[in-house]
């Protein structure tokens, strides 16, 4: 057994994901501060046990057979302000940061309103959303100043360039010995009402265009964007909206979402992903690449 206080065994991961899908983790530990997080990572590394850092549980599909190793539920949520800088631990939830920024009249994070993500997850995926005019994309890297990471067991203060941000990409996809502990965001003073208006506009757009979690559980967009075309439009063009396997269904509202209609399994979702990829490739010649992470055993 790992030397971690309050560690649990054989914990179902489904309730901790936005998909509400997934088997059990061998070990489950909640890190409530950076000391907990660092110790848990080092303990698992020492014992050569696989690790998965769980934030809000979005943008992932956990296999039906669960995760062989230690899942660390990152609840390191402390934040603090220093003039126009926001320093947030990696387990902090982006929506909570947005609320805190509104109170301070600080702008930059409101563009990501309505997206379920922790700070760590936002950095991993280079969280993004459409600009206010809906003509371009705003990435979270645009407001990142620096970070505190654990690399090969050592704490390091790093600049933005360290993260090697790309579209749905960062160093965290490529180096399994790097863990985000804390991020410093550089924000701008702005009228609170203008910030609130932008939040409302973004939430309205998302509610109109995308299936919401209160409607059907999902992991968000399944496939990476194809520049100038859009994955969802390709899937829709192939007549796949409403295509269903078991409890998994291509959303009628937005074709790049595969939603859980009730009791969907990871196998259902994987099978539907395969069918969508095969059909789109055959009918359009475009190869869809998943943007979500597949966690554990399927």
Automatic annotation (TrEMBL):
GO terms for molecular function: FAD binding; UDP-N-acetylmuramate dehydrogenase activity. Its EC number is 1.3.1.98. Coiled coil: none annotated. It catalyses: UDP-N-acetyl-alpha-D-muramate + NADP(+) = UDP-N-acetyl-3-O-(1-carboxyvinyl)-alpha-D-glucosamine + NADPH + H(+). GO terms for biological process: cell division; cell wall organization; peptidoglycan biosynthetic process; regulation of cell shape. The active site is at 221 (proton donor), 291. The keyword NADP applies. InterPro entries: FAD-bd_PCMH, FAD-bd_PCMH-like_sf, FAD-bd_PCMH_sub1, FAD-bd_PCMH_sub2, MurB, MurB_C, MurB_C_sf, Oxid_FAD_bind_N. It comes from the Bacteria. Its cofactor is FAD. Residues 21-190 form the FAD-binding PCMH-type domain. SUPFAM superfamilies: FAD-binding/transporter-associated domain-like (SSF56176), Uridine diphospho-N-Acetylenolpyruvylglucosamine reductase, MurB, C-terminal domain (SSF56194). It is found in: Cytoplasm. The keyword Ion transport does not apply. Pfam families: FAD_binding_4, MurB_C. Keywords: Cell cycle, Cell division, Cell shape, Cell wall biogenesis/degradation, Cytoplasm, FAD, Flavoprotein, NADP, Oxidoreductase, Peptidoglycan synthesis. PANTHER family: UDP-N-ACETYLENOLPYRUVOYLGLUCOSAMINE REDUCTASE. This is UDP-N-acetylenolpyruvoylglucosamine reductase. The lineage of its organism: Bacteria, Candidatus Zambryskiibacteriota.
């Amino acid at each position: 057994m790992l030397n971690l206080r309050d560690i649990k065994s054989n914990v179902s991961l489904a309730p901790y994901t936005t998909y509400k899908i997934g088997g059990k983790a061998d070990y489950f530990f909640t890190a409530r501060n950076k000391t907990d997080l660092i110790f848990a990572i080092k303990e698992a590394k020492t014992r050569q046990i696989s690790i998965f850092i769980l934030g809000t549980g979005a943008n992932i599909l956990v296999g039906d057979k669960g995760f062989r190793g230690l899942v660390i539920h990152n609840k390191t949520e402390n934040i603090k302000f220093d003039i126009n800088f926001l320093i947030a631990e990696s387990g902090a939830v982006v929506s909570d940061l947005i609320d805190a920024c509104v109170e301070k009249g600080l702008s930059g994070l409101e563009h990501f309103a309505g997206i379920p993500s922790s700070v760590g997850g936002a950095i991993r995926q280079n969280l993004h959303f459409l600009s206010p005019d809906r003509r371009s994309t705003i990435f979270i890297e645009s407001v990142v100043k620096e970070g505190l990471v654990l690399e090969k067991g050592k704490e390091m203060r790093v600049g933005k360039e360290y993260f090697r941000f790309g579209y749905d990409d960062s160093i965290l996809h490529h180096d399994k010995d790097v863990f985000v502990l804390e991020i410093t965001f550089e924000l701008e003073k702005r009228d609170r009402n203008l910030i609130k208006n932008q939040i409302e506009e973004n939430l309205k757009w998302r509610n109109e265009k995308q299936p919401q979690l209160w409607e059907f559980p999902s992991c968000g967009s399944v496939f990476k964007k194809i520049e100038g075309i859009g994955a969802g439009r390709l899937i829709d063009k192939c007549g796949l909206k409403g295509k269903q396997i078991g409890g998994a269904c291509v959303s009628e509202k937005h074709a790049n979402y595969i939603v859980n209609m009730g009791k969907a399994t990871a196998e259902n979702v994987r099978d539907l992903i395969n069918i969508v990829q095969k059909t789109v490739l055959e009918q359009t010649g475009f190869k869809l690449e998943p943007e979500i992470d597949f966690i554990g055993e399927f």
